[in-house]
Amino acid sequence: MTVTLKTIKSISKKILLDFFLTLFSIVADWLLWFVFCCCVFSSWDETHFGKMGSYYINRTFFFDVHPPLGKMLIGLAGYLSGYDGTFPFQKPGDRYEQHNYVGMRGFCAFLGSCLVPFAYLTVLELSKSLPAALLTAFILIFDTGCITLSQYILLDPILMFFLMGAVLSMVKCNSCADRPFSASWWFWLSLTGVSLAGAMGVKFVGLFVVLLVGLNTIYDLWDLLGNLSLSLVMFGKHLLARVLCLIVLPLALYTAMFAVHFAVLNRSGPGDGFFSSAFQSQLIGNNLHNVSVPEHLAYGSVVTMKNLRMAGGYLHSHWHLYPEGVGARQQQVGVLWCYSDLSDPSSPVEFVRHGDIIRLEHKETSRNLHSHQHEAPLTRKHFQVTGYGINGTGDSNDFWRIEVVGRRTGQLIKVLRSQVRLTHVATGCILGSSGKTLPKWGWEQVEVTCTPYLKETPNSLWNFEDHINPKLPNISLDVLKPSFAEILLESHMVMIRGNSGLKPKDNEVTSKPWHWPINYQGLRFSGVNETDYRVYLLGNPVIWWLNLVTIGLYLLITVATAVALKRGVQLTSELKELSRVVLRAGGQITLGWLLHYLPFFMMGRVLYFHHYFPAMLFSSMLTGITWDALLKFCAGFLSCSTTARRVYGGGFLALVLLILYSFYLFHPLSYGMIGPMASNPSSPMAGLRWMDSWEF
């Protein structure tokens, strides 16, 4: 058998690539395993996501601002590893004791370690350069921030796993462009769709990688459309394949995640109040579960009304009056009012219909729901809402028009399902909840006002929940349960409102997007004083500042390369290939960095340092590609091949040694510190506090 030298080289290269890939995976796994086995207490957001994993094991319903996949996987990892879901996850620093937490941490650490081979393979595919891929792998293995973030029960390593999986699959699919509809082409295209569903299913910021893949797909289709040798029928097949794999498949998987989520969490829990009464009626243990009530509202019914704002409470009143100086001195109304619509008990049943003028009387105090043009206690330009009258006798300010969203005049009002708006007849204002908490004189309940600004928001919408009327037949609330599509839509509306409402807690360290690339301020994961075991989330300074410099350097190289090509400068075949890598491969990675970083400048919610890490993955890959190209450019201008190899090898070795030395200095940030804070001159970490904003 004859074996050519080219075949031998190809086999040797494949063995070398597999060796480095295996080596990096083992090193990354070892570094993370060493850490999460040593830290035996809960840290930072483990108190949220570990607790949510426990909820899945106990099948207890909860609410979170993120989609469910990440928490479901954490719960599954805990369940399969023998965790019983009983650890309370009350605060950072609580010891796990006998609770088996290793499975959940090990799962997150494994996914975090996969980022290294994913980035290695992505850069190798884009640049066809082993040194560029090696440099990228070194950066991610020895970054203290990536190690810290991957060693705990958090969503970030799960998100970044699917994100990098989508990028790698996209790049691999692009490399199969010369053999479309082959098995490998279908595999990578489908895997891209699966990874997109995973990224979206963990956090909404997964939409950024969806946008990246979408732009890449549009570019590919546009290129195919310009290929005159390709028939329109074949172009249609390309389009259909991408629609199926990159739109239909991810959406189907994403929807399936929620179906599993709602099927598993079927017991009442701390998340009930964030959802509608109709949804709550399906949860075992909820006070609406298996309840029978009259279906349609009638005059004379005793009802409770719930506000539809997120975590909205019931309309409520009590005997206490508003204090002097706070509007009219009448009975207080707040969100936490049981009503009866009075009618003659001997009269026939008359149903309440959309557009009716009604009066609502508080059952306990016999006062009517009332508003007037006195200013509300807390919200300026809103009118005060009170309880007024004696035994149902009041005045013209007690009348309200009841309107059902999306209904026509005369239609009946259903308990649980109908969303109603109460418009004050005399003033035209709308009953609603401001969301502000009253002072102690108002028992710290949420303020109810009548707003003259006619905007339809959840704060101004209500539904009827409990319903008692002996004249009407009862029906099971199962008849009124919402469909899966309605539940899916409601859950997303609740998550979006929850995200937009996230505000920093007292004494909580937050950050701004411009802080992140310069590694300006880290994040305490555990411990606050000298006696605590302290872990601090901070990127390896040399790596992060190298990444920042590289972004500027890449822009300069790109401009210089583009100008040289435009001016017709004669380049060798090797330099032309390098130019292609810089412009095409580097451009894709830079676009990924921009899409995962710039949107945070437009977000109004609270932001933290860890939000930058998906973008950091792209900047690290860009560093590998850019420095490899730069060193090759420099070596290419040297006439002596030996000197050129030395320059290239020396520059690469200097970067690797610099990264390793910086990791040696800062590794205690990830592995834990005990002793004086770095601000204390006697601390062994004092010399490493290169910026005053670092608080380790």
TrEMBL record:
Protein family: Belongs to the glycosyltransferase 39 family.
Catalytic activity, as annotated: a di-trans,poly-cis-dolichyl beta-D-mannosyl phosphate + L-threonyl-[protein] = 3-O-(alpha-D-mannosyl)-L-threonyl-[protein] + a di-trans,poly-cis-dolichyl phosphate + H(+); a di-trans,poly-cis-dolichyl beta-D-mannosyl phosphate + L-seryl-[protein] = 3-O-(alpha-D-mannosyl)-L-seryl-[protein] + a di-trans,poly-cis-dolichyl phosphate + H(+)
Tree of life domain: Eukaryota
Membrane topology (UniProt): Multi-pass membrane protein
Biological or metabolic pathway of the protein: Protein modification; protein glycosylation
A GO MF term: dolichyl-phosphate-mannose-protein mannosyltransferase activity
Protein name as it appears in the record: Protein O-mannosyl-transferase 2
Organism of provenance: Serinus canaria (Island canary)
Principal place of residence: endoplasmic reticulum
Ranges of residues in domain MIR: 349-405, 410-467
Originating gene: POMT2
GO CC annotation terms, alphabetical: endoplasmic reticulum membrane
